[in-house]
Amino acid sequence: MKFCPKCGTLMQPRRINGINYLVCPKCGYKEEVSSSQPTYKVANKIKHTVREKSIVIENDKIPETLPKLKDVVYCPKCGHNEVYYWTMQTRAADEPPTRFYKCAKCGYVWREYE
Ligand SMILES: [Zn+2]
Ligand SMILES: [Zn+2]
């Protein structure tokens, strides 16, 4: 509970770009919440997710012969029912490898989200 030092309105907690702020709903005054809450871990997790989302898969990293799935996974881009799949170590070595899919029709590549 904190009141705005400018206008005295009760401040509202907000999360902007992974940082916690207290924002005044009346005049817009905002201040960063630095102490008490374990913000570090959460911020770290967000960073991790952003990095994973931006993974670029180069074609030469995709194995030549891939097992094919039919009517199990559908291409999110064109809706085709046949996809190739493989796994790749994208994170730390002690974490399980990530499964990737490649559309047999349009060649779109995406990763499996658990
Ligand atoms: Zn205010
Ligand atoms: Zn496709």
From TrEMBL:
A zinc finger (C4-type) spans 4-27. SUPFAM superfamilies: Zinc beta-ribbon (SSF57783). PANTHER family: DNA-DIRECTED RNA POLYMERASE (PTHR11239), DNA-DIRECTED RNA POLYMERASE III SUBUNIT RPC10 (PTHR11239:SF12). Keywords: Metal-binding, Transcription, Transcription regulation, Zinc, Zinc-finger. Residues 71-111 form the TFIIS-type domain. It comes from Fervidicoccus fontis. This is Transcription factor S. Coiled coil: none annotated. It comes from the Archaea.
